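On clarity, I found the account of how folds are encoded harder to follow than it need be. What matters is that the chain and its backbone geometry are given together, residue for residue. I therefore recommend that a typical entry be quoted early in the introduction. An entry of this sort, consisting of the sequence and the corresponding backbone structure tokens, reads as follows:
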Amino acid sequence: MIQFTWQQLRELYRRGFVLFLIAPVIVAIVVIPEFVQHIVEIKIGMFDSRAAGHALANDPQRWTAGYFKLAGLLIAMLATARYWGARANGGKWWRLDQIAWVPLIVAALLFAFVPGIPDLLRAYVPVWLYYTLYTVFSLVTLPLIVPIVAALAGDRRVGLLGNYWRNFYWREWRWVPLLLVLLVAAYAPGMALHYGFHWIAVGQPAVLLWPIMVLDSLAVGLIASMAGAAFSLTYEAARPASI
């Protein structure tokens, strides 16, 4: 098990970095809106000082750009998972018709809305019970990552009425620890660089600030490429046979 996990981690970092070379357009999905947000941040003076950074953290202009950045981050992660899944199955990642759309939509809706069920009870239960329920409902959706990535990869075995859909939940729980390990390893380098670049950028002259922001945008791209690779590797471990 240790050797298998080590192999998965090595492949995670290989895929995360090599995506910049073989599919830069996917990385650009998040790098461009991230850099646009930095343009806004520099314009409003967010990096002039640490006090200015704290004061402007919730500036409406920054958050308007931030919403596009967050959307780009999610899309880039999914596109990365789609890229590796399609590549393994002999497809083209940009061929959206090859995605198993119905299973994807069903699994994605469950993943998005099941953790919100405790919110319906929030006004009627103690705070501790609400947070306990929220944690439990969030955890029980984790195995849904496998059918989501499978559908993105075009794996047609993920049917609404097939044995896979009826039985996947209990079978996929064993892959949740691998997913968590890979996600921690995926986020760690990019987030460290992201916060490091923001720390260094404060008070720097423009001649240094702009290159730092370029590097920071690439660091966010690394987060997306690594996280997408983590999703794809978890799916491949759970479904070793290609379609």
Summary: The radius of gyration is 20 Å. The first helix runs from residue 2 to 22.
